Amino acid sequence: MHRRTFLLGAGALCLSGAANAHAQIPESAIQSIDAQCRTFMTTTGIRALSAAIGRYGATEMSLIYGVADSKGTPVTADHRFRIASLSKPVTAVAIMKLSDQRKLSLNDAVFGPGSIFGNRYGPANDRLRAIRVHHLLSHTAGGWPNDGADPTMNYGWLDHHELIERVIATHPLEAWPGQVQRYSNFGYCLLGRIVEQVTGQGYEAWVRRNVLVPSGARTMQVGHDLPGPLEVEYFPSNGNPAALNMPRLDANGGWIATPSDLVALLAHIDGANYVENIISQSAVRAMAARPHPAAAFGHGWAVNDLRNRWHTGLLPGTSTFMCITSRDYYFVALTNSGGVGNGYALALDNLMWSLARTVPGWNP
Predict the structure, then answer these.
(1) Which whole-number Å values give the CA distances from 287 to 17, 266, 346, 350, 363, in the listed order?
(2) Bridge partners, 324 (sequence order)
(3) Residue 359's closest CA among 100, 38, 33?
(4) For residue 259, which of 30, 31, 6, 13 has the smallest C-alpha distance?
(5) pLDDT tens for the chain, residues 1 to 364
(6) Is the pTM of this model over 0.90?
(7) Nearest CA-CA partner of 89 in 258, 246, 249, 265
(8) Per DSSP, what are the bridge partners of residue 231?
(9) Do β-strands 318-324 and 329-335 pair in parallel, antiparallel, or remain unpaired?
């Protein structure tokens, strides 16, 4: 792929694609985009921003600003970041892939006799037996919300299966499945174990082999408690990045990636087929479908009436955003700063839309 770096210094803006595409972005737009990014960095105090804008199946622009660590190492396009809850669409794609392969149905029961897990986690009451795969995807299982008692952020010494046993025994559902939508990290933890139960393989290995590598997202992996090679250092506004059990967060918040990894994935699941999609059109539609008209989430994505699909992610030292717009643009923004409660994810959302609209002729 042809690449030219137009601006260097404390940050860099790179345009990717055919040489004649660069002529469509005037110097004034490039300068405005650079100024917006530098202002964003100064205003927020974020240490590193790595972002990308794609459209029609390809990356058009990469934006790289700040430092990767406390030593002042300049961040590069190859640095990987924790993506936090951007992991959930990855897991949703894996479930849709298994549905396409007819290895499961979105209407399969999760707990109880004849279900995916059967009685593996003990006897299931009526509410547990009513949970279907689609309830977990759409945050409508009836409980386990992302609040102060969120089980995925507690019991750090337990492995996945020990955690599920404890939650089933001590965290009863608050409502019947399908009645209310409450964002649930634990629901996506269960989806990761469903991938393992159905395939007989580890979640990370199966997703890499069947979802990520086929889409070109080859450097993605589940992270660890401490940063690995070419992974940024994290600067939290609260909490301790090293205290997270990243392998246990795998399906709901554990992946690390570059923006180019995620743009590649988005291009292969957009339903537009600029490049070959890795899931069916019906699966793409199912991911965007709301469980009821007022729902804020579909099955893996936040959705709105404009047909945009997006997700944000927050962990100590991590604020992230990605989006597939209704007009087939892709936005990805990853940082190594912030966390819950600082508004950085919304700021990233606003920044990426503003940058795309800066380019004459772009209509995200």
Answers:
(1) 29, 13, 22, 23, 24
(2) 309, 330
(3) 33
(4) 13
(5) 223 333 333 466 665 433 334 447 888 999 999 999 999 999 999 999 999 999 999 999 999 999 999 999 999 999 999 999 999 999 999 999 999 999 999 999 999 999 999 999 989 999 999 999 999 999 999 999 999 889 999 888 999 999 999 999 999 999 999 999 999 999 999 999 999 999 999 999 999 999 999 999 999 999 999 999 999 999 999 899 999 999 999 999 999 999 999 999 999 999 998 999 999 999 999 999 999 999 999 999 999 999 999 999 999 999 999 999 999 999 999 999 998 888 999 999 999 999 999 999 999 9
(6) yes
(7) 265
(8) 80
(9) antiparallel
Quote the tokens at residue 67: 């430092």
Smallest Cα–Cα separation from 288: which of 267, 277, 274, 303?
303
Cβ distance 309 to 349 under 8 Å?
Answer: no
Q: Which of 55, 120, 46 lies closest to 362 in space, CA to CA?
A: 55
